[in-house]
Each structure stands twice: as C-alpha cells, then as structure tokens.
Design a protein that fits this description.
With 101 residues, this protein is an alpha+beta fold. The chain has one domain: Double Stranded RNA Binding Domain (2-Layer Sandwich). 30% of the residues lie in helices and 40% in strands. The chain contains three helices and five strands. Strands 1, 2, 3, 4 and 5 form a five-stranded antiparallel sheet that branches. The termini are far apart. The mean pLDDT is 85.
Length: 101
Amino acid sequence: MSFWKNLFGGGGKSDEQSSAPKVLGEDTYKGFTIRAMEMKAGSEYQLCGEIEKEIDGEKRVKQFIRADKLSGVEQVSSVAIAKGRQIIDEQGDKIFDGGGW
C-alpha cells in the first residue's frame, strides 16, 4: 500500500517539510542569535550555522558553512556556536554588508 501512496504523492513529506533545515542548537551573543544547523555529509555532519540580528527594525540573517566534518550532533552544535561567536567578534554588524566571507 505504501508503494501506491508514494507513487501518487500520498504519505510522503512535502517539499517544504523536507527542505527545512533542523536547528541543532541556539545561543544569543552580543545582541546576535547564533543557530547551529544540521547539514548531513554522508555519515558525518558538516559545520553549518546562521547568524541573525535585527538592525533598524529589519531581521538580517547570514549563513556560514565550513569544510569541517564532525561526527555527532552535540559536537556540531557547540563548534558551530563557537564559530558564530568568532565571526561576530571579528566582523560585528559588517557580517551583513554584502559580499561573501
């Protein structure tokens, strides 16, 4: 029966549900919100997160992805939050000034 449901679109996750990244951890630091995001890389996790801050009434978000691969969710969460703090310390609000880093 599940074969027929999948074949005709029943019972599966919608695109919106399956594409939403999972938040593994969150912290507030110097007025910014840092979120560790799940990004699977085979049997490991790639270091991924986002930094958010409200500036002049506008919510600004910048994602960061690093090449580091880690084995556990807890490890990814703590390392991503530490990396987010480092980025904030180095760049402050300039994080949101276009361009990549």
